[in-house]
Amino acid sequence: MKFKNITLFKLLLLSTALMAAPLAKAQGRLDEYIRDGLASNESIKQQNFVLEKNIYALKEAKSMFLPEVTFSTTYTKADGGRTIDFPTGDLFNGVYATLNQLTGTNAFPQLQNQKILLNPDNFYDAKFRTTLPILNAELIYNKRIKKQQVDLQKAEVLLYKRELVKEIKTAYYSYQKAVYATGIYESSLRLVEEGQRINTKLYENSKVNRTVVLRSQNEVSKMNASLTDARKTAESARYYFNFLLNRPLTDSILLDDIKALPAAEQLSGNSVSGREELSKLRIAKDINGNLTGLAKSYIVPKLGTFIDLGSQAFDWKFNNNSRYYLFGVSLQWNLFSSGKNNYRVKQAIADQNALASQTDYVQQQLLTELKVRQAAMQSAIAKYQAAESQLKTSQVYYGDMLKLYKQGMAIYIELLDAQNQWIDAQLKTNIALYDTWIANAAIERANAGFTIQ
Asked: Cβ neighbours of residue 14 under 8 Å, at least 6 residues apart?
């Protein structure tokens, strides 16, 4: 009895490809996908919009130190209300009557007492006002806080990017693992189909019993079900990977040739100082320090200046008499507020102490995460090395059993057991290899080891 040599040769090539070689380096296609994902991911775009908003807020804070020019105008039309009595007739009529007698004319008419309306009637006031702050501690602290908020959002963007890199790598390795598992099942299906064909011929020639044929058919059905499941797993992994890159879900994915374990230097090191979570806490602490200074800024007086250039007159007149300028300096100093400012300062100091405590806790938490990830990678490497050893022995065992079966010295159940062990070893080696790369991506996330452009 002879199996087709070409089928066995393909299986040998596939198993050899899964065996470890020298340490692998960064994959070129995966790096391209990461760049595409960072450029197109919708969550990153949303965070960049928030960053853009904070940058404009900083520019607004800086502009508050510059002169501000406003134009305003008012027009009033009034009737009634309070008046001022002015005795024009009582003051001048006697004098005017005497002058008329002396001159023998009526050149000096008699006048009526006047009632002058206090509300301006048919009066306008139009002016340009230019203001400039000279000393304002609130504006100084506000600008510092806005700048730190920009830095805080930059750290938030990096945090999103780093998490996305880890998700892209994990999804990529998961897809590749599913694709190679599909290939193993496809090769195994051809192997069991060939076994079924040969056993059927042997049964027809009365060299084996019917049980062997039934078992062969059962193996084909089982392998078909496993292959369908593997294809669906690969399809789901492809959908998720393309979703992360904001691409059509059915787009094809180019795969790198990964044959070896990731670099071992990830297993050492205890530094988590590059984590964006700690950067955010440090920036938040600095912001809180400026908030404390802002709360204390009430002790510094506010000094500013202004100048008005305008025109005001009745009946819309505009001439040299209506035009005017007005220059002034303003000083504002908060002398008493019933302890309100002191309470604000104490609140800011309490927040500062809380942030300091939180920073220590988060740093220890991140260090613990790194250690757990490193232990998981060591476990994954050990599993891969064990699977690799099992693959070699199962391959030899299957070859020996195949020879014995051909010579009639072994029953089909023994050959089938050796065959299943070999297929299972290939699958375990495939899974273990990509699990080490997934664990490596988790460590890169834990120690912020991946360089984000």
From this structure: 183, 184, 187, 426
